[in-house]
Amino acid sequence: MTGTDRQSRNENKTPDTSPSNGTRYNQLANVLRERIYSKEWAPHTLIPSEHMLMKDFGLSRGTVRRAIKVLVDEGLLVQRHGKGTFVAEPGITHAAGVHPISFAASLRAQGMDFVTNVLDKRIEPAPAEIAEALGIEPGSDVMFMRRVRTVEGEPVICQESWSNLKECPGLFDEDYTQATLFDAVERHSGRKIQVSRIRYSARIAGKEHGQLLGCDESAAVLLLEQTIYLMDGAPIEWSHTWLKPGQSVVGSSISGD
After folding, report:
1. Which 3 state secondary structure label does DSSP give 64?
2. Is 233 helix (H, G, I), strand (E, B) or coil?
């Protein structure tokens, strides 16, 4: 092999530190992150091996490893020697107080005019983790809904909820651009919402939620995971609330009216 041939061969090798591969590992990190956020991969799930990810996405081992490291550094994945890479257990859970947080009521109490945009509303079979949270059989019908609330045209909150249709028939037929989910639950269940449990986590927005909240995908956001119970103890809703950077939860929780 001539020196020219060796030089040409070396130039054709693109190292994983190049800008193009930097984009590739971030793209893969975004895909894997959303699988965790959407609960497609529950805590303790063993994710596909490096080899499988290389094959599925057509990427080099170095690119796959960089993507996994991003999520390990964010606390979303944990690597166990000789066993593989797993979805990490979320942060510490603690009681939220006596009342659930209603963000619609909170915005009203602050005198803010807001608009609710329903981006997705559908009936789907409950994944195992959501079924466990709602006390139903996996695969049972739940209502998934994604809403973004805007103030003066700017998104401030993205809410994703899974609601127990067994306890609340008729919930799907409401217009949630006008009605709040808390009010609809109480009307259709005939019972008051009483308590919740909340887990607070710091998260990187990621590409999808960054777009929804109008912030950079690398921005740190506050995620509230809330399980809501009716007055008789029946779990009715499991939700994620993503707060745009600069938002905060202050003072006491506010119950639905």
Report:
1. helix
2. coil
pTM (2 decimals)?
Answer: 0.69
Query: What pLDDT does 251 receive?
Result: 47
Compute the distance between CA of residue 188 and CA of residue 197 in angstroms, rounded to an integer: 22
- Beta strands 77-80 and 235-243 are unpaired
Is there a contact between 186 and 256 (Cβ–Cβ < 8 Å)? yes
Tokens (6 digits) for 133: 């949270």
Instruction: Answer for the pair 214, 244: CB distance below 8 angstroms, yes or no.
Output: yes
240 bridge partner residues: 160, 225
Q: Could you tell me the CA-to-CA distances from 19 to 9, 29, 59, 151 in Å, in that order? A: 20, 15, 14, 37
Report residue 16 as tokens: 């994983």
First and final C-alpha spacing in the chain: 79
**Residue 254 amino acid letter:** I
Rounded to whole angstroms, how far apart are CA atoms 253 and 194? 12
- If residue 159 lies in a helix (H) or strand (E), which one and from where to where? strand 154-164
Nearest Cα to Cα of residue 224 among 132, 172, 161, 131 = 161
| Residue 104: CB atoms within 10 Å | 21
The bridge status of strand 84-87 relative to strand 235-243 is unpaired
Residues of the chain with pLDDT under 50: 1-21, 92-96, 98, 251-257
DSSP result, 183-211:
HHHHHHHSS-EEEEEEEEEEEE-HHHHHH
Q: What is the pLDDT of residue 50?
A: 95
Pull the structure tokens for residue 185: 């639950």
Task: Give DSSP secondary structure letters for 111-125.
Answer: T--EEEEEEEEEEEE
Confidence (pLDDT) at 254: 44
